[in-house]
Write a structure and sequence with these properties.
Layout: E1 2-7, H1 16-27, E2 31-36, H2 49-52, H3 65-73, E3 76-84, E4 87-88, H4 90-97, E5 113-120, H5 125-136, E6 141-149, H6 155-158, H7 168-173, H8 194-208
Parallel strand pairs: 1-2, 1-3, 3-5, 5-6
Antiparallel strand pairs: 3-4
Length: 210
């Protein structure tokens, strides 16, 4: 069994989404491969349908291209994304958009088991709905969706929260945000949330049993 996992987690570090995807892969007990999308240079679909129609896999030549064949061949797939502006990231969307290569005459990934991971500071439901909607077009079998509400806005790192009234931190705390001193203890980890840790383990168990 081979499972491939993709994370659209932020560049330059292993955030909660990266670590959740990795944990699900590792706990599955199968042969796995982890791909951090921020390390790749790629675009969304460019409509070159004449290239992908016959092989039924994306042929746009860039860093992401080899992984579409791997998705096609994998026994299961894990995809994780943070939430930006109340939806999945452009990085995740661009990668999934090129699944269009599978959608010709029939759908070779139809029924393939998928586990989804979504994490963010505030609202997650719209992103989860969007992820399910787009993957539904490829008739994949979503075994589970793991969510982590981190309550860690980008403002914790940006450094300008004391003068800002438009950011996530202001939405969370109101005027009190301007008086907050950000400490390392405020950066929450999914591993410390017992419900999320149980959800990660449960998702991995479903993959273990495919």
């Amino acid at each position: 069994m081979k499972i491939i996992g993709f994370s659209a987690g932020s560049v330059g570090r292993e955030g909660n989404v990266d670590r959740m995807v990795r944990a699900i892969l590792e706990k599955s007990g199968h042969e796995v491969e982890f791909v951090k999308l921020a390390d790749l240079k790629y675009s969304g679909c460019k409509g070159c349908v004449q290239l992908c129609a016959k092989p039924q896999v994306c042929r746009l030549p860039d860093d992401a291209q080899p992984y579409y064949q791997k998705v096609k061949e994998a026994d299961a797939v894990v995809i994780g994304t943070p939430v930006y502006f109340d939806t999945i990231t452009a990085m995740a969307w661009a990668f999934i958009e090129r699944f269009f290569g599978y959608r010709h005459v029939d759908i070779p990934i139809s029924g393939k088991p998928f586990v989804l991971v979504v994490g963010g500071a505030l609202m997650l439901d719209s992103a989860v709905e969007q992820l399910h909607k787009v993957l539904g077009m490829f008739e994949v079998n979503v075994l589970d969706t793991v969510k982590y509400l981190s309550k860690v806005p980008p403002c914790f790192k940006c450094g300008r929260h004391k003068e800002c009234e438009i950011g996530g931190m202001y939405h969370m705390f109101g005027d009190a945000a301007k008086e907050v001193t950000v400490t390392k203890e405020m950066f929450t980890r999914w591993e410390d949330d017992s419900e999320v840790a149980a959800a990660v383990a449960a998702a991995a168990e479903q993959l273990k049993n495919i």
